[in-house]
């Protein structure tokens, strides 16, 4: 998902349909399957495409180029509001009235594939063309059910002018350096808070997990068949994250509605972690010349540097009456030159690695940093129960950051609840 806020994801409504795909893991392995091949030649007939938010509004413009290249096809795009999308999909799946192609949030793939609603990816689509973390969002039980359409990841934004005032001339590369920089922003540059971090609540896992992944944490165990929250690597990361709040570097009482841009521009909060859309947002608030007053840097290293990979996937539904044309449209949207066109139209970052060689992306040094982080960015497991389980994690993290609760006890609780819910596979 993306752009619901700097770090908040859509929270899914638990429906009877969703529950039918959840429950305890039976422990049975899911055999990987390969989708059927797609015929040669141009696309024909009509296909219906669902897409959410701004993507749904902008996609028809790009779809016209596909129609021009395939004179016998008609692409009908339906734009859907994000807040209504999940229920609309589940209702459509129940009624066997799904679209041919759809933009699917990465954290929904496990649920929809678990319901048997998605078509397996054809062999002509090669995973090596995509960023590894992004491709992983399409896989459920070892089978891919789509392609990453666009991606985003999170970097550390920082005020270069205030960093210089704090005596920092080059960005830090490790955990200790990041914390020292944030503290110096308060002590020497006059910031009220050194860095803006989410104090628990919905979607806070997206802020915590980059630190955990950078410390070598894995969210699954037993060959990818079970959740794995209660580990030494995760505990060390949560303790580190908590220290920003207990040491008064981050605001444990930050408002529920983020004030990221004005706080960053004023210098009140000169550092925060977010995705590429914040570049235009802070520059709009900051006005002329502000783009020269800030920089972005990769997540700091503990064992490695990793971050969260988000975005959305493209999937073809099994009920399609025009499977070949549906997949041809998906393949066309995955061409590097089309990905660059889509970036220029929407500012959505390409999921296809070779598209990043285009000057439109390479010439922007800040944007290029996002491309570098995408090489090691990771996604959560595609279990159908992920949205249920991660709610518990968010709740426990709020206790950790706001009340100083014991991180070890919090992770033990999350693991216990995750095992109770199961993976849904």
From TrEMBL:
SUPFAM superfamilies: Periplasmic binding protein-like II. Keywords: Signal, Transport. GO terms for biological process: maltodextrin transmembrane transport; maltose transport. GO terms for cellular component: ATP-binding cassette (ABC) transporter complex, substrate-binding subunit-containing. The keyword Transport applies. One of its GO terms (molecular function) is maltose binding. InterPro entries: SBP. Residues 1-18 form the signal peptide. CDD domains: PBP2_MalE. It holds the Pfam family SBP_bac_1. PROSITE patterns: PROKAR_LIPOPROTEIN (PS51257). Belongs to the bacterial solute-binding protein 1 family. This is Carbohydrate ABC transporter substrate-binding protein, CUT1 family. It comes from Pedococcus cremeus.
